[in-house]
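Record 1 of the preview.
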Amino acid sequence: KQKGYRAEVEVASKLTSAGIPAKRQPLSGSMAEYKGDVVLASGKRIEVKHRESIADYLWQWLAQGDADYLVVKKNHKQPLVLMTFDQFVDLLNHIPDNPSSARGVPSDPVS
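->
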């Protein structure tokens, strides 16, 4: 649990440092009213997983062909997109409804 907590705090901190208001969700998804691990000012939620047993081939596939993004698809499931954290931050900074994008940070940012 401590490893997960530290990862959640790190993600929220890195996003905030990059100008994307974010906060770690209290009780981190353990109660219905506190869904997700990190919440952006836009209300979008991020689930954070810190595990040693994540398949190494995901990183190998992402590096294959010098790809910027990896799309993984499982039968009967929505495709998932994998990218580096820095690419994710860059993407968030270009989303129009993101309070930290071109329109500026809201007067009451999430802390």
